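hey so i finally got around to running the thing on that chain from the lab meeting. sorry it took forever, my laptop kept dying and i had to restart like 3 times. anyway pasting the input first so we r on the same page abt which one it is
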Amino acid sequence: MPASEILSAQRNDPSFPDIWEELNWRGLVHVSTDPAALKELLAGPPIVYYCGFDPTAPSLHLGNLVQLLVLRRLQLAGHRPLGLVGGSTGLIGDPRPSAERTLNDRETVAEWVGRLRAQIERFLSFEGDNAARIVNNLDWTAPLSAIDFLREIGKHFRVGTMLKKDAVAARLNSEAGISYTEFSYQILQGMDFLELYRQYDCVLQTGGSDQWGNLTSGTDLIHKVEGRSVHAIGTPLITNSDGTKFGKSEGNAIWLDAEMCSPYRFYQFWLNTDDADVIARLKVFTFLTREQIEALEQEVREQPFRREAQRTLAREVTSLVHGREATDAVIAASEALFGQGDLSGLDASTLAAAVEELPNARLGEDATVVQALVDTALCSSLSEARRAIAQGGVYLNNAKVEDAEATLAGAFLAGGRAVLRRGKKTLAGVVKA
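ok and heres what got predicted. didnt touch it at all, straight out
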């Protein structure tokens, strides 16, 4: 399903009286400037609102996906989104609590701006009365001289207030300290909000709650310079039920770019969601209605072994990010790996992505299945591998191996991959040497 068809199928849940109530039910409001005023504002005539995305990597990740979906939900409620790509702030980098960022060169940042812009555009509609618009803060920052920046913007910021921001305070108390460059980031983000207010009458910014200091730098600046009250919404930082950081898989971020995180790996990440987390994830990351999510919540309580909620979550979010066709391919691959489909029918890229997620070994066609079982750690010794075959528990590409002397000749499928299985659930991949 093309992105345009996915967008056209999306709806907010009509069971809620307004979008503010739905955002809160979905757990998307952790902090805000004025809840009562925001509820009234979002229930009224269309407003312009924005969220910024800095090109500090060549792809957005799951934390950014939360913001993209907030932008989309507000657009579905009739409001007008601005997606800001930080061509200037990306040259500096938002200060991390732990250490100074490594500055990327201008050419790299410019390339990443283009890549992020293309990703953002897939999640918003650019048609109709409330069509989205993409903006780049380099457009108004680059022409500004240092003197003008200090006179027109810097004079409105108080150092004492800036020092109290969470990320700044954390860095000041660390051995790394903080550079003036990163210390100034909040001024630049505040200036972005002011510029968008002036150009588009933008009155709301959204972002993660860890960005709250940067968000309020903009609301404060607009109040001081223009005498107008504007708003900010901080979404909660999403963590797993055990307190670990969400969106990390063995130390690697889950990226939205298929080249950095394959659709197969992306799907498996969601499929492996813990029962304690799956309903909250469905609320945040899907457009399923409250009624549908509550039905899945009952499934989790009564029949958790079916993992219907996890399968629904994985299907919905993978379709949202990678499209229905890619999602169908990875579902077919998941089923085929466990003997419920035809491995030979999988395309090379999907099969390769699946095999990469398994323990695997590189072997030639003359290698024996027994050796492959040992090299992939499905068996601890050659004798154990032979016994496993004799007991009828070894499969090569879902075909039972009955000969202990069998080789891998003719077994490699698309892209030079083969799949070994011991029993019903223990899998490994073999890559053709």
